[in-house]
Amino acid sequence: MTTIDHDAPSRPRRGFAGMDPERRREIARLGGRAAHELGRAHEFTPEEAREARAKSLRGQDADGGASGP
Q: Three-state SS string across the chain, please?
């Protein structure tokens, strides 16, 4: 089991962790746009979307409707 030392000095956040949430969203948006332009992004068909939703709902039933880990 891992323990957390709350008295340890905190390190400065680097990379994406240290960025403003708005800046992270901007970078993600640009990456998504680039993927579509390159033809590498997946676009769900209506049938795939229905299947994904059904699978998601089944998963929620299995864990009592909780979302997250």
A: CCCCCCCCCCCCCCHHHHCCHHHHHHHHHHHHHHHHHHCCCCCCCHHHHHHHHHHHHHHHHHCCCCCCC
